[in-house]
TrEMBL record:
It comes from Candidatus Contendobacter odensis Run_B_J11. Pfam families: STAS_2. This is STAS domain-containing protein. PANTHER family: BLR2341 PROTEIN. InterPro entries: MlaB-like_STAS, MlaB_ABC_Transporter, STAS_dom, STAS_dom_sf. Residues 1-95 form the STAS domain. SUPFAM superfamilies: SpoIIaa-like.
């Protein structure tokens, strides 16, 4: 399993590095776990990056799971209506 540990501030500057990490992890074809416990601030572009990852992972049949998403991560996703598509809602995987 590949594990990505998110930085506290996921802003535009962090997006390029995170993008590379996510692509590298996805290419292993192994299940991916994203640890979001440290996230204090998240930019819309990073949430869009996560959504793109989820779509690509689904197309490749690579499971993606969140570990300990922080309140800031959850709130940012909910405000943009992305919590369910990102798999951050408790029942998102059961639909």
């Amino acid at each position: 399993m590949a594990i990505i540990e998110c930085q506290p501030d996921l802003d535009i500057a962090a997006a390029a590095t995170l993008h590379r990490q996510l692509l590298d992890a996805l290419q292993t074809q192994q299940p991916l776990e994203i640890d979001g416990r440290a996230v204090r601030k998240i930019h819309t572009a990073v949430l869009q990056l996560f959504l793109s990852l989820m779509n690509e992972a689904k197309a490749r049949a690579v499971p993606v799971h969140w570990r300990n998403p922080s309140p800031a991560l959850l709130e940012g996703a909910r405000l943009l209506g992305l919590a369910e598509p990102l798999g951050l809602e408790p029942d998102a995987g059961s639909r």
